[in-house]
Amino acid sequence: MHFLRFLINFLVCLSFLSSCGGGGESSGNEGLDAANHGCDGSCSNFNLAAEEVRAITSRAVLAAETLGVKATIAITDRVGNVLSVYAMPGALPTSTISGGIAAVGGLEGISVPATLAAISKAGTGSYLSSQGNAFSTRTASQIIQEHFNPGERQQGGGPLFGVQFSQLICSDVITVNPALLGGVSVGKKSKIGGLVGPRPLPLGLSADPGGIPLYKLGDPVGGIGIELDGIYSFDRDITDVDDSLEERIALLATQGGFEIPSEISGDRIFALGKSLRTIDISYSDLEVLPEVAPVIEEASFVVVPFYFNGQVKAGATFGSSDSGIFRTNRAGVSAAVLTDSAGNPRFPSRNGSVLPGGIELKSNEVEAILDSSLLTAFRTRAAIRRPLDSEAHVSIWVVDTEGTPLGMVRSSDAPVFGLDVALQKARTAQFFSSTNASGLLSSARAKNGVGAFEDYAGVAAGFLGQGNNFGSRAFSNRSIGNLSRPFYPDGIDGSSNGPLSLPFPGLPGRTWSPFNTGLQLDLVFQRLVQPLGVPTNPPSSIPDSCTDSSVFGNKLRNGIQIFPGSFPLYRNAVLIGGIGVSGDGVDQDDLIAFYGASRVGLDHAGHQNIGDSVLGFNAPIAIRSDLIETPVPDTRLRYVNCPEGPFRGSNDQRVCEGM
User: Fold this and answer.
1) CA 127, CA 167: separation in Å to the nearest integer?
2) Residue of 445, 460, 470 whose CA lies nearest to 522
3) Dihedrals phi, psi of 347, to nearest 5 degrees
């Protein structure tokens, strides 16, 4: 029996184009060898000049004309500023969201402007990439579906399951440019002019092939997104090789100095032993375009409210104060922080909201946790970066019991998407570990006015059993993720959905898809679609919170996240906040957050007198959610999963045991 299972798995691996390799070298045919510059996070940062933006746009138009299609083309810089949106005459004006699996509800079937789809695609290419990895919307498609890899039955969900609902314009991390608002109210949102990011992606992170990063001398300087077919979807079958016209045009547009480096393309990077995909075609597959560039019609640069004023502009230089992500040093390693237009930190360390007995987190404790987590990241072997044995690059947030950010730091070359996601994670762990979580979810359901909102609190209470409700246990993002999959246990086809998710298509009523994930989407649905002009057009305001602030306050201002990398923080068994980490592999995110808040991590960072003498700020073992036995026989929730032998230059094993 064991041999038969091995043989079946081996044949499956072969069918997935050797995607089940153990992390070795691959052919590297997804990128261009000539674009390699040996960058590892320490190379210089560059920007896209306005004339380069025009040249890339022109080449995309030439490619589309050569292929006989009409496209909408968007270009962003690395922090999400929209530098150009060009709609070729005759291009389809809208795209319909469809997962292609007959799912019902959520965003399924909604028609959105093609310009917004193209912007989200371009921003995804730039937000997912760094000097150590080049990812795309095709990569996003591979890692957000119900199985990883998509199509491999009886496999767990994608490692970044749920990441698509981040980077939204309603997030308090995301900045908006007041010059693009046209007088529309944005409440308490961060309004910062110039090129200060991170800027919003109108549909969140995209999984529709056709969005890829732009590189300049090995440095990611932005992304390009192509939308032309009228369908905004994802790739359900990665066993084949697609020839997507949108992806082909995007790739052709990078030629001339903005190509994807082959040394960091997805086929060189492995997650859970499976190679990732950046593009399905290679540069050698591309046609030779005519030398005569087409005439670029100025009238075809289209105004997109909140995003682009119709005038092509240069992008920010990442790492400068102008970009809003300013390079600095912390605890002896290279780091970065979010800044305003004057270069001042947007989220300096501060005390938490006052708690009885004065047990709230203090600013010096926040500083200690950030130091410890950043140093842990520097020690940790990266999961999804090249070269091999690089240190992990992540974003780190600490929040209080109200979800208020108390401080943040990031590794200098961490992908930008992790800024919003790590804060979502910190808030998620803190929220579901709080005693009023179920009551607030019930209140939000009662007040919900747009879309649907299931009785998640009630269903979860029945599923978890008496004494295991939210607030009576410490819930990490990993355990909340367990409850948020369309199958429980995760990946087991035919199983019922987790209590925070929806059933897989095939049953009556609302069903799951990457565009309808359950509680995660229901919490933000109204404030996601409102700025899109759905159901009213045009929007009269931009929400300053992604969830109903009259119910949640600041607790979930940028929504929740449902893949690993966060933990609640405690003092004397009392909840005092949360920590979230995102950027370089989900097990690595778990390790950095858990170890960073631990006694061992704090001691290693030189903060021996801060935190509990045994646990640091981690939850007591007796209340962690991995003690919950679920209704499915012989299953428990997971709390933390640390990699084996995680530290560079060390053979230490099982480093999270006993913490």
Assistant:
1) 9
2) 445
3) -130, 65
Q: CA 650 to CA 536: how far, in whole Å?
A: 57
Q: Is 181 left (phi over 0), alpha (psi -120 to 50) or beta?
A: alpha
DSSP for 178-207, written as a single string: GGGSTT-B-TTS-B--TT-SPPP-TTSS--
3 state SS of 81? coil
Whether pLDDT at 170 is above 90: yes
DSSP state string for 423-460:
HHHHHHHHHHTSTTHHHHHHHHHHH--SS----HHHHH
pLDDT of residue 29 exceeding 80, the answer is: no
Q: Residue 225 and residue 122: Cα distance in Å, rounded? A: 4
**Length of the chain in residues, anyone?**
659
Which amino acid is residue 125, in one-letter code? G
Question: b/e for 115-148, b at 16 or more Cβ within 10 A?
Answer: bbbbbbbbbbbbbbbbbbbbbbbbbbbbbbbbbb
Q: What is the pLDDT of residue 15?
A: 35
Residue 480: which of 560, 417, 364 has the closest Cα? 560
Better-scored residue on pLDDT, 75 or 42: 75
The helix-helix angle for 50-67 and 245-254 (nearest 10°) equals 140
Q: pLDDT tens, 373-392?
A: 999 999 999 999 999 999 99
Q: How far apart are CA 65 and CA 291, in angstroms?
A: 13
Q: Is the pLDDT of residue 64 over 60?
A: yes
Are 296 and 290 contacting, i.e. CB atoms less than 8 angstroms apart?
no
Which residues lie closer than 8 Å to 472 by C-beta, 6 or more apart?
Answer: 435, 623
Task: Give the confidence band of 239 by pLDDT, cuts at 50, 70, 90.
Answer: confident
3-class DSSP state of 577: strand
Contact 390, 41 (CB under 8 A): yes
Q: Are 281 and 32 in contact (CB under 8 A)?
A: no
Q: How far apart are CA 414 and CA 374, in angstroms?
A: 12
Contact 53, 83 (CB under 8 A): yes
Percent of the chain with pLDDT over 90: 90
**Nearest by Cα to 180 from 75, 306, 38, 68:** 306
Q: Which amino acid is at 181?
A: L
Q: Output the six-digit token pair for 89.
A: 């005459």
> 581 by DSSP, 3-state: which?
strand
Q: For the segment 401-431, what is each residue's pLDDT rounded down to a tens digit?
A: 999 999 999 999 999 999 999 999 999 999 9
Distance CA 16, CA 147 (A): 13
Tell the residue number behind the tokens 């005439």, with chain if given. Answer: 295
> Taking residues 522-549, what's their average pLDDT?
87
Distances (CA, A) of 301 to 58, 83, 197, 310: 12, 10, 22, 5
CA distance 594 to 152: 30
Query: What is the Cα–Cα distance from 461 to 487, expressed in whole angstroms?
Result: 18
**Would you place residue 534 in the very low, low, confident or very high pLDDT band (cuts 50, 70, 90)?**
low
Give the Å distances, CA to CA, from 39 to 43, 213, 220, 255, 264: 5, 15, 10, 19, 9
**Beta-strand pair 211-216/111-113:** unpaired
What pLDDT score was predicted for residue 536? 54
Tell me the per-residue pLDDT of 203-215, one tens digit each, with 9 for 90 and over.
Answer: 999 999 999 999 9
Pull the structure tokens for residue 142.
């591979």
Its pTM stands at: 0.95
Cα atoms in the 13 Å half-sphere on the side-chain side of 628: 28
Return the sign of the alpha-carbon dihedral for residues 116, 118, 121, 124.
negative
Rounded distance between C-alpha atoms, residue 633 and residue 305, angstroms: 52
